[in-house]
Specification:
By secondary structure, the protein is an alpha/beta fold. It contains nine helices and nine strands. The radius of gyration is 21 Å and the shape is globular.
């Protein structure tokens, strides 16, 4: 499909996927309105094609102001919720503050952006919302419970949102990356709680150790990952789910097989829970 010039709004463009988004968007001749916490980004761009705005996605008032300012400059074609960070902890060991913050950044941050953008996108009767979730939002591992909870929540929101806005000409895509070679596994983007209980050494602790060893050696190429996202966005029928990386696809396949196995093993039990008169009704068979 021929490339059509677009205007993008992308959160968290200072590093990782966000920075690669900025590079590829600008290289295509598109216009980018990006956000960073500091309001600056060391990204070369032609005059007038890059605007960088300061934004903390946990500040609802700031989100509304920044999104309004972005749309005031003209229609926006694609909104990408990219900003986020990871938390590794056993379920037992995380503090309330840690849990609330990871949910605030990774779920409520995108939710605030979406709510602020929707009136403008509805007015345009077009647009595409892209939420960068994670393979953890499909198949959680030990130690990723609270990060996964935030990403699962964003997945659920996105599925509902897609149904609500499809009649308005607005598309929604969740991107579920596996391990890509960004700085996500460094202390800048991944926080690890000290495990208080030895009982979790072989589960949550082992996951944290694995990620520490994987840092800097992740198999995924961010440039290829972002290129795949752009290809999906430009396609005639963009997917609701875009799983990126052989590792993420393998984990998704494993989760789906396990889910199907449970569904089949307990199907008869689950099917026998309606009221008797409903189960006997001819309408119930249709």
């Amino acid at each position: 499909m021929p490339h059509t010039s677009r205007t993008w709004f992308v959160t968290g463009i200072s590093r990782g996927f966000g920075r690669e988004f900025a590079r590829q968007i600008l290289a295509r001749g598109d216009t980018l309105i990006g956000t960073t916490r500091e309001g600056t980004a060391d990204i070369a761009a032609p005059e007038g094609r890059l605007t960088v705005l300061p934004l903390d996605v946990t500040d609802g008032g700031a989100v509304r102001e920044v999104v309004a300012a972005a749309f005031a400059a003209g229609p926006i074609d694609v909104v990408v919720n990219n900003a986020g960070y990871g938390l590794m902890s056993s379920i037992e060991d995380a503090t309330d503050a840690e849990v609330e913050h990871v949910m605030d950044v990774n779920f409520h941050g995108p939710r605030r952006i979406i709510q602020a953008a929707l009136p403008h996108l509805r007015g345009q009767r077009r647009g595409h919302i892209v939420n960068i979730t994670s393979i953890a939002g499909i198949a959680a591992s030990a130690g990723s419970g609270y990060y996964a909870a935030a990403k699962y929540a964003l997945e659920g929101l996105s599925q509902s949102l897609a149904r609500e806005v499809a009649p308005l000409g607005i598309k929604v895509t969740c991107v579920e990356p596996g391990a890509f070679r960004t700085d996500f596994l460094t202390s800048h983007s991944l926080r690890t709680t000290v495990m208080m209980g030895g009982d979790y050494v072989d589960t949550a602790g082992a996951s944290a150790d694995y990620l520490a060893r994987l840092a800097g050696r992740q198999p995924g190429d961010p440039a290829k990952g972002v290129a795949a996202i752009l290809e999906a966005i430009e396609s005639a029928n963009p997917p609701l789910h875009l799983v990126l990386g052989p590792d993420a696809i393998r984990r998704t396949d494993e989760m789906l097989r396990a889910f199907a196995a449970d569904l089949d093993a307990w199907r008869a039990v689950g099917m026998a829970t309606d009221h008797d008169h409903i189960a006997a009704s001819p309408a119930a068979a249709n």
